[in-house]
Specification:
By secondary structure, the chain is α/β, with parallel strands linked by helices. It is built from 18 helices and 14 strands. It binds uridine-5'-diphosphate-xylopyranose (UDX) and adenosine-5'-diphosphate. The site of uridine-5'-diphosphate-xylopyranose has 19 residues, from helix 10.
C-alpha cells in the first residue's frame, strides 16, 4: 500500500517548526502545509507583512516565507481543523527540562507532547502519520502511541463507523543548527526516519526525496532514531567542552588554541569542525539533551555513563565562571560601579535565540559584582534580554559605538560577523583608560587591538 500525503500539519511554530515547514512548503509545492500554535502572538508574527517581524531570525527564512506563505504554507491557531485535515502531523512543540518534581533538573517535561497527542487523538480523522520532530527521551514514541490508541478505544460505535481512525508513529529528529537552519534543511548530512510501519516510513521518505538524495535517507527502528538525536548533540557538545578545557591549558602554557585546533582538526579522524573555543555552548538542545541522556543512564542503573556525560555540562559551566573571574581580575579585582560593553547576547551568531546563551550567566555574574552593562546584539530584542536577566538593570544599546561610550572594558560573547572587523582606534578613543578588550570568541585581530592601545585577553590565548 502506498500512503499519499497531500496535507500536513505541524504543531508548534517555533525555531524548529517554522523553518522546517518553510523548507517543506518550498520544496513540495503540491503539499498543503499548515503550521499551528496555541500562542496567538507567535502566529500573528509569522503572518506579519513586515518580514523583519517574523518570530525567528534565520538567514534565508524570510525569502521562503514570502515565496510560500498563503500559497501552500499557512500559519494559524486553528489547531482543531488543521489536525482534522492532515494526513501527516509533525509534533514540534517545546520539551524543556523539568523544573520541579520527579526527575527535575534532568528529565524532559513532556506535558506539551502529551497535550498535543491528546489533541491529535481527539481531532484527527482517517489514517494519520504522527511524526516526532521535537527532541524527546528514548521511548517517548510508545507513550504517544498509548495516548493515541487509548482514544480509539474510548469512541462510541457510531463514531467508529463514521470515521475510521488509525495512527502510525514515526521519529524524524531535527538536526538543523540555528543560524544555518535553512541550509541544513535544504542540504542535510542525513535524514533519519525511525518507525515500524514500512508504508508510513516510505510516505515520509517520499516527501524528503523531493530534494534529498535517497542515499542520505536513513531508515532505522524508532528507538535508534530517538537515541541518535540525543547522542549526536551530546557528541557535539562534548567537542565544545573538550576544546574549552584545552583553551584553559593554552592560557596557562602559552600554547594558542587556534593553532592547537588547526593541528588536531587536520587529523581526518577528528575533523576540523566544532573546535572553536568560546564562552561555552548554549542553545535549546545541548544541555537539555545531555541531561536527558544522564537521566536515561541513571534510570537504567548506568551511573558511570551518567557521570561521564554530566562532566560535559560541568566543564561548560566552569568555562563561563572562569571567564567572569578573568574579567574581574583584569579590572583590578573589582568591577563595582564600572561600566562594561557586552557585544553579543544570542547563543551564537545569525540567530535571535538566547536560550541557554552563555551571555545570560556571564552578564548575571557581572551585574552581581556591581558592574553597569551596556548590551548590544544585532538581533536580540531588549524585552528578551530583560526576561533573561530577570529584569535586572542594564542599558540596551543600538550599535557598537553607543555600547562602548565611557566603558572600562568590552566583552565579546557572540561570534557575530560585525565583531570580527572592529574599528579599534575609534572604540579605544571612546572608552575609559586603561581600556580592556575581552574576546571570548577568538574573533578579534589581537595585534591591531594592542596597537590601538587596548589591553587584550583572548580565550585560549590569554593576555
Ligand atoms: C545543535 C546541533 O548542532 C543541531 O544538530 C541540533 O539539531 C540542535 O542543536 P544549535 O544549538 O542550533 O544546534 O547550534 P550549534 O551550531 O550546534 O552550536 C551550539 C553551541 O555550541 C553554540 O553556543 C555555539 O556557539 C557553540 N559552539 C559551537 C562553540 O562554542 N564552538 C564550536 O566550535 C561550535
Ligand atoms: P523549538 O525550538 O523546539 O521549536 P519553541 O519553544 O521555539 O521550541 O516552539 C515550540 C512551540 O510549540 C511554541 O510556540 C509553543 O507555543 C508551541 N506549543 C506547545 N504546545 C502546543 C500545543 N499543545 N499545541 C500547539 N502549539 C503548542
Amino acid at each position: 500500500m502506498v500512503i499519499k500525503i497531500k496535507n500536513i500539519c505541524c504543531i508548534g511554530a517555533g525555531y524548529v517548526g517554522g523553518p522546517t515547514m518553510a523548507v517543506f512548503a518550498s520544496k513540495c509545492p503540491d503539499l498543503v502545509v499548515n503550521v499551528v500554535d496555541i500562542n496567538e502572538k507567535r502566529i500573528s508574527d509569522w503572518n506579519d507583512k513586515d518580514l523583519s517581524n517574523l518570530p525567528v531570525y534565520e538567514p534565508g527564512l524570510s525569502y521562503l516565507i514570502e515565496k510560500c506563505r498563503n500559497k501552500n504554507l499557512f500559519f494559524s491557531n486553528d489547531v482543531k481543523n488543521c489536525i482534522a485535515k492532515a494526513d501527516m502531523i509533525f509534533i514540534s512543540v517545546n520539551t524543556p527540562t523539568k523544573k520541579t518534581g520527579f526527575g527535575s533538573g534532568q528529565a524532559l517535561d513532556l506535558r506539551w507532547i502529551e497535550e498535543c497527542s491528546r489533541e491529535i487523538a481527539k481531532y484527527s480523522a482517517g489514517s494519520t502519520i504522527v511524526v516526532e520532530k521535537s527532541t524527546l527521551p528514548v521511548k517517548t514514541a510508545s507513550k504517544i502511541k498509548e495516548i493515541l490508541n487509548s482514544s480509539l478505544k474510548d469512541r462510541s460505535l457510531e463514531e467508529k463507523l463514521n470515521t475510521e481512525k488509525e495512527f502510525f508513529i514515526l521519529s524524524n529528529p531535527e538536526f538543523l543548527a540555528e543560524g544555518s537552519a535553512i541550509n541544513d534543511l535544504e542540504n542535510p548530512d542525513r535524514v533519519l526516519i525511525g518507525g515500524e510501519n514500512k508504508e508510513a516510513v516510505d510516505a515520509l521518505s517520499k516527501i524528503y526525496l523531493n530534494w534529498v538524495p535517497s542515499k542520505k535517507i536513513l531508515k532505522t527502528n524508532i528507538w535508534s532514531s530517538e537515541l541518535s538525536k540525543l547522542v549526536s548533540n551530546a557528541f557535539l557538545a562534548q567537542r565544545v567542552s573538550s576544546i574549552n578545557a584545552t583553551s584553559a591549558i593554552c592560557e596557562k602554557t602559552g600554547a594558542d588554541i587556534k593553532e592547537v585546533s588547526l593541528a588536531i582538526g587536520l587529523d581526518r579522524r577528528i575533523g576540523g569542525k566544532f573546535l572553536n573555543s568560546g564562552p561555552g555552548f548554549g542553545g535549546s538542545c545541548f544541555k537539555k539533551d545531555i541531561l536527558s541522556l544522564v537521566y536515561l543512564s541513571n534510570f537504567y542503573g548506568l551511573s558511570h555513563v551518567a557521570n561521564y556525560w554530566e562532566q560535559v555540562i560541568k566543564l561548560n559551566e566552569w568555562q563561563q565562571s572562569r571567564i567572569t573571574q578573568q574579567i574581574l581580575e583584569s579590572l583590578f579585582g573589582t568591577i563595582s560601579g564600572k561600566k562594561l560593553a557586552i557585544l553579543g547576547f544570542a547563543f551564537k551568531a545569525n540567530t535571535n535565540d538566547t536560550r541557554e546563551s552563555p551571555a545570560i550567566n556571564i552578564c548575571k555574574y557581572l551585574i552581581e559584582e556591581g558592574s553597569i552593562l551596556n548590551i548590544y546584539d544585532p538581533k536580540v530584542k531588549k524585552s528578551q534580554i530583560q526576561k533573561d536577566l530577570n529584569f535586572e538593570k542594564f542599558e540596551h544599546t543600538h550599535n557598537i559605538l553607543e555600547a562602548v561610550q565611557d566603558v572600562d572594558g568590552i566583552v565579546i560573547l557572540t561570534d557575530w560577523e560585525e565583531f570580527k572587523s572592529l574599528n579599534y582606534c575609534e572604540l579605544y578613543n571612546s572608552m575609559r583608560k586603561p581600556s580592556w578588550l575581552f574576546d571570548c570568541r577568538g574573533v578579534i585581530n589581537k595585534k591591531l587591538a594592542i596597537e590601538a592601545g587596548f589591553k587584550v585577553w583572548v580565550v585560549g590565548n590569554g593576555t
